[in-house]
Hints:
Elements: E1 6-11, H1 15-20, E2 28-32, H2 42-56, E3 62-67, H3 75-82, E4 89-92, H4 98-114, E5 123-128, H5 131-135, H6 137-141, E6 147-152, H7 154-161, H8 173-186, E7 189-192, H9 201-214, E8 218-221, H10 227-234, H11 238-255, E9 262-265, E10 268-271, H12 272-294, H13 319-323, E11 360-363, E12 366-369, H14 370-381, H15 385-392, H16 424-433
Parallel strand pairs: 1-2, 1-8, 2-3, 3-4, 4-5, 5-6, 6-7, 7-8
Antiparallel strand pairs: 9-10, 11-12
Amino acid sequence: xxxxxxxxxxxxxxxxxxxxxxxxxxxxxxLDLEDSVPPSEKEAARKLVAEKLKYAGSxxxxxxxxxxxxxxxxxxxxxxxxxxxxxxxxxxxxTGHPDDVKRLDWKLEELERRRGxxxxxxxxxxxxxxxxxxxxxxxxxxxxxxxxNAIFGAVDYCRDMRVKLTSEAVEQMWGRAKMAxxxxxxxxxxxxxxxxxxxxxxxxxxxxxxxKQMGYEGRMIIHPSQVEPSNRLYAPDPADVEWANxxxxxxEEEGLAKGKAAVSYLGKMVxxxxxxxxxxxxxxxxxxxxxxxxxxxxxxxxxPLDGLKGRFGRCGATSGFARSGTFVCRDGPPxxxxxxxxxxxxxxxxxxxPGTSLHTVxxxxxxxxxxxxxxxxxxxxxxxxxxxxxxxxxYFSRSRIMPCTGDPLSEHKGVTPWGTVLCCRTLFSALxxxxxxxxxxxxxxxxP
Length: 448
């Protein structure tokens, strides 16, 4: 099972946005050579993308490149430029016929053999965004063993159908549903269309849930603000994970072990299809957990603090950890800050962010500076520790702090009184000075 909750698109001709790619907690980063790059910039974009393949994936995401469709006569040039080590897959724009996919498969194998890359390394993602593509969806999805997902392209689909694109998406229902069914029938992941009203997060979330009920398991993302809700909503609900654990345990112990094909759990019948559904939920959650550990979001584990009650958490920008009561941060201060010696040092390459008062995080319905949120919390429990915390604040930026997904925030044990997840680096700094104090707003989870 492949987890592809969020696929963030980054214009391949924009160096600043490409530089930010590793900090975006999407499952896949797609460097774009198609619609977001004007014709005059195509060649420069190819060079930049080729140079940044490994860098874009340094945050732990897989790296794909969206290439121009065959009709543009630019596809070969795109592939020649970007098929190198570090590329996980390519997304073929405006896929309309299975022969488009077969031709791409052949070209990828030719390049892999020529460049010493194991055959089959580069996967195929298809954008089905025309009437022709939707009508041939199943055949396209079955056209290559490299296929891993199909993406519904609502914007071009509506243009091709000569209908108005709306946030309600009524005009997309038939094509959207057909593509999801085709992808599932072919055994690949259905990825939902970009939601262009990127500032309307509530509408985005409603649209995600509608698509999820159609069988979509991830989203094409056009703005970083959509990544967190996408990751959260396409992940299994914690209640579903708890239910799945119970189902698997009961079915295996009371059913399979005793030769029964059906058992009862919480007053409902559990048979093989229900059991397999529960196993799918647990497999998806396990893969998400594995992504967090391997992505490089875990920036080090705190050493034991004498006298501190509870257990220590680990960093990781993931809604899964936040829901389980841990706190979340993206990065910590550089080694010269002196917070963690030895093997607990944070990753290299961080830069100092001047003017911390300009970097804000969401705090409930308000926006407060990183400095005010962190310093206030530290001051509330560790008065003398606030001075040390203030020394570290310049090393934290908005992009390195993730909002808590606890619901409701006021009852979540992993948040500050303002509804914002505390950066554990600052907390640990204070706890080192006052190891006998117990932090009232944080629940600790033991590191593996």
